[in-house]
Design goal:
2 domains; four-stranded mixed sheet; 17% strand; elongated; iron
Length: 383
């Protein structure tokens, strides 16, 4: 799209909007788009909040006034296909204690900082209508979750929350006859004690599986507007600002989801700018095997101005309580950083070198790659 924009002189965002997927369009996996595409609405909101048009004009003026330091900006929409494996399984085991109605839960997914445990607790609390401080989650176990699927691809939190939700519904079905006899059916502790007195099993397990639970795949739509500053002489890049937006549905936990979206974006910034893997040309041995020569993004690589927003156009009925997964979808948004860097290099080549041909900038856009692509040479060092 950017190449087409360069050839026609039309803003790349305008070309992208003219070619958006609509319901019924064929996809790369030989299926067809089934859900509506909210990107055009999301872009309208982002154009206003990010001031993309105004900033682009400011960048053009900046680049005209500066020879060796250039800025670039790029507006990139993405679609992430959230496809469940039909053989995936994520288990949830819930035990309720009769003395105080407290709950101990374990799930098959692994908490690794993505907020899986917190979301599971919130789902149980909402479904059973009890305070979150009544619920404690313990470590995963092969006894309660044998042969659980791998936690990854943003499936862990969503799948474990769905399994916990189904386990709660099984439990409430057992408790239903007792609850109907109570004058105050919302008294959870009393309900638990009465069920225990009637020898009703207060432990429940659910093996979550997309096929058995009739869980369907869906799409996650995202946007990024990235602005960078590039030192052409050294190849150093600074991400000045990034505006992110994701179609989250009804977020289960906005604090967690903001962290997941921004974390995925920062992770991808390394993929697109610094994490270069080199092999020895003869032996094939990896040469970038330490932090001396393999550079993941660090604190100073985070955009100076990072803004994240959610889009929730309509209830997402395929997710847990209307939510969508977060984390991996935003990794795609790092492409906007690469495109913004190319914009800056293209500006240098056209303004300083009077070269207007299209350039190919492969990831990662390391300082060496940027200097090489810019084709800057000593004869241009003229005061």
């Amino acid at each position: 799209m950017d190449h087409l924009s360069h050839a026609t002189g039309i803003d790349p965002l305008q070309i992208r909007r003219a070619n958006f997927l609509t319901i019924g369009d064929p996809l790369l996996d030989k299926t067809y788009l089934k859900d509506s595409n909210p990107l055009d609405i999301m872009i309208g909101k982002m154009l206003e909040s990010s001031n993309y048009t105004g900033r682009k004009k400011e960048i053009e003026n900046f680049n005209k006034a500066n020879k060796w330091v250039k800025r670039g900006i790029s507006f990139n929409p993405t679609k992430y296909s959230y496809d469940y494996s039909p053989d995936a399984r994520f288990d949830a085991y819930i035990a309720v204690y009769s003395t105080d109605g407290s709950i101990l839960v374990t799930v098959g997914g692994i908490e690794m900082g993505q907020g899986l445990n917190t979301k599971v607790i919130q789902v149980i609390a909402k479904e059973l209508n009890i305070p979150v401080n009544k619920i404690k989650i313990t470590t995963s176990s092969s006894l309660s979750s044998p042969e659980n699927s791998t936690t990854g691809g943003s499936f862990g939190s969503e799948s474990c929350a769905a399994a916990a939700l189904n386990a709660c519904r099984k439990l409430m079905e057992r408790m239903k006859p007792v609850k109907e006899e109570m004058e105050n059916p919302s008294d959870w502790e009393e309900l638990v004690k009465r069920c225990f007195a009637k020898n009703i099993d207060l432990t429940v397990r659910h093996m979550g599986n997309p096929t058995n639970d009739k869980i369907k795949s869906y799409n996650i739509w995202s946007l990024a507007v990235s602005e960078v500053k590039v030192d052409i002489l050294t190849g150093e890049t600074c991400i000045l600002r990034a505006d992110l937006a994701q179609d989250t549905g009804t977020s289960l936990n906005p604090d967690i989801d903001v962290g997941q979206i921004e974390g995925g974006f920062i992770m991808s910034s390394g993929f697109f700018t610094s994490e270069e893997i080199k092999h020895h040309p003869v032996t094939g041995k990896i040469m970038t095997n330490s932090t001396w020569n393999y550079k993941p993004p660090l604190s100073k690589d985070i955009p100076q101005d990072l803004r994240t927003s959610f889009y929730n156009g309509k209830r997402h009925d395929l997710g847990v309580f209307g939510s969508k997964a977060t984390g991996e979808p935003s990794v795609l948004l790092g492409c906007s950083i690469l495109a913004a860097i190319r914009y800056a290099i293209q500006s240098f080549r056209s303004m300083t070198l009077d070269k207007h041909d299209w350039i190919v900038l492969n990831a990662p856009a390391t300082p060496e790659n940027i200097v090489t692509t810019s084709q800057m040479a000593s004869q241009y060092f003229i005061l």
